[in-house]
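Standup notes
- DV: blocked on the single-chain target, sequence here:
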Amino acid sequence: MSGAKERPAGPPTAGGPAFLVVGKVRRPHGVHGEVVAEILTDFPERLIPKRAIYIGEKHVKQVIASQRPHNEGLLLGFEGITTPEQAGRFRNQILSIAASEASELPDGEYYFHELFDLEVMDEAGKLLGRLTDILETGANDVYVVTGASGRELLIPAIPEVILEVDLDANTMKVHLLPGLVDQEDENREQ
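- DV (later): unblocked, structure below
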């Protein structure tokens, strides 16, 4: 059970986001208008020449002219951007793709935006709350489920815990590990 790292960017349309975040421009690089980009996607192969990408909150469309590895990220060049001064306007801006261009995921994998606001239930059908956040840890993601009282339950996104995800029904069924059940009971007593 896993989620792909692309988070929504921009207003949702027709039940989903219009854009998905795939990276972030850090700073200009060199004298030819390239930028250093941090990769924030599980699919960096999308960031290729001739591909349209959208930059910043206003989703300014740019076409990637060049791409090459750089440290833990990429150096990107954009069509029509030839100087560091031109590239500098993109400093610290989010890079997005159109959600309609998102890759299809294998069964059992979901984009983060598909999981947000799912009703989370235990095996007996008891509502635990809604999935409100996803924490990315080194080992596995952790789903933050917020109950009606505002209390948060942290659920590891591992196959032994996440039993079923039904996007059509907007639900997730989970098996609570013994430590999670004790934590939940303690929270109710307080």
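- Follow-up: The first helix runs from residue 84 to 88.
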